[in-house]
Amino acid sequence: METWMRYLSSDDRIVFGKVEGGNLYEHLSLEHPVPTGAVLPVRALKPLAPCMPKKVVALWNNFHALAAKLEKPVPAHPLFLIKPAESVIGADEPIQRPAHYAGKIAYEGELGIVIGKRCRDASVDEAAASIFGYTIVNDVTAAELLNENPHFPQWCRAKGFDTFCCIGPAIATDFDWRSAHVVTTLEGVERQNYPLSDMVFTPAEQVSMISQDMTLEPGDVIACGTSLGVGSIKDGASVSITINGIGTLTNRLAVAGDSARQAAPAAASAV
User: Fold this and answer.
1) Do 140 and 72 sit in the same domain of this protein?
2) What CATH number should be reported for the domain holding residue 159?
3) What is the pTM for the complete model shown?
């Protein structure tokens, strides 16, 4: 299994590559993972989200256990919404409460599929070959906005705020998702612990079926949906999501009055 990460260097350059033994072995990009020959000590770099997707496709009702609890039928096609690129932050960056919203903010620990090759109308085998690797996602939601208007569920608004898609800390390739669990803790207390083998659609099936609806680009992420144990985060509280083989993604919901996150000047550039 290999671990890939994305960093900001001391000269404000975004670097991407394979991490081994405390060093980053730089590669050109996720789309073109060709070694540049540069080796950089990780301690001198600032971690970023491991990819910068043009879009995040977030699934709903993709686990049998949650479907059973909600008394919802298992879907025949992935049910999804789109989270904008501006919602993406990396590990240890603060989640910012939207202005003028004082309601509940929910966490959802999820597996993320990272696309490595442009994918459109792909077979399951072609879809599997287009997957670069896997990461961790916290799909954050302003829960009370979802049904604020009784005539139109506002999935994209409730889940699309800046900082509402935490991704990281790394991308793992050759990851055996079938044997892994998603474990979410809130202030150190376990809230979620569910097997990824309970997914309705496998990662390759998700990529294949979604690619029939839209083109998936390198760096795009599919958040595979969550299972039992979703809850709300109080201001100042930290949520940590662990998937063995990938790492732990931790983010804190900023307390009122915290200044907005300071994004790196080039952090929105795709690498």
Assistant:
1) yes
2) 3.90.850.10
3) 0.94
